[in-house]
Amino acid sequence: xxxxxxxxxxxxxxxxxxxxxxxxxxxxxxxxxxxxxxxxxxxxxxxxxxxxxxxxxxxxxxxxxxxxxxxxxxxxxxxxxxxxxxxxxxxxxxxxxxxxxxxxxxxxxxxxxxxxxxxxxxxxxxxxxxxxxxxxxxxxxxxxxxxxxxxxxxxxxxxxxxxxxxxxxxxxxxxxxxxxxxxxxxxxxxxxxxxxxxxxxxxxxxxxxxxxxxxxxxxxxxxxxxxxxxxxxxxxxxxxxxxxxxxxxxxxxxxxx
Length: 257
What we know:
By secondary structure, the chain is mostly helical. It has 13 helices and no strands. The chain has helices at 2-18, 33-46, 49-79, 81-91, 96-113, 116-132, 137-148, 153-166, 171-188, 191-207, 212-225, 228-237, 248-256. The model is unreliable at 5-10 and 16-25 (pLDDT under 50).
C-alpha cells in the first residue's frame, strides 16, 4: 500500500507541477520528490534479509549525501548572480538572454567591488548578446551603461540615442542620454547639446516622472535654456525650496527675474 501511495503521489505531483508551464523547470520536481521519500521505507521493508536491507540503507545514505552536497553547491551558485548567469551561459550556449543578464550582473559587481576589469567583461558579454539578438534593446542599453561607467561617454551616448530611436519611451536610455549631454554642456556650454539634453529630459519626465539627481539636472537644464517658469516648477519638485538645498540659489534666481 505504501509503495502504491508513493508512486501515486509522485505521478500526481509531477503532473501538478507541470500545469501551465511552457517548459519543464527544475523547481517543478521538488514537490513530487516527496513520493520518492515515501518509497524508501517501503523498499527497505520488502527486501529479503538483513544483509540486503543494510546494503540498500547504505546506498540510500550515499545518495542522500550526494544530493545534499549537490544542493549545497547549487545554493552557492544562486547566491552569486555572476556565478549563476555564468553557469546559465555555459549550459545554454548561443542564447542571448543569459549573456545579457550576465552582463548586468557583471556591471553590478563592478560597481560594488570597484573593479574596472569586470566592466570590460560585461562589455564583451553584452556585445555577444547584441550580436545574437540585435533587437534586444535592453542589451544595448546595458552596453551603454558599461561604456559610460568606463568614461566612454561618446560611445555610450551613441548606444542610448539608438535605443531611444527604436523605443522612444525607453526611460532609462532617455535619462542616461540626457545626463551625458548635460555633463558635456556643463563643460563646453554648447547650445545644441543643451537643447538635446532638455528634449531627452522632457520626454523622460513624460514617460515616468523624474526624481532625485535626474530631476535636479532637468531643472538646471531648463534654467540654463532660459525657460524660467518651467525651471521654477521642476526645481521646486526637486526640493530646491529647502534652504539647505544646493539648488536653492538657482530657484531664487528664477523667482527674482
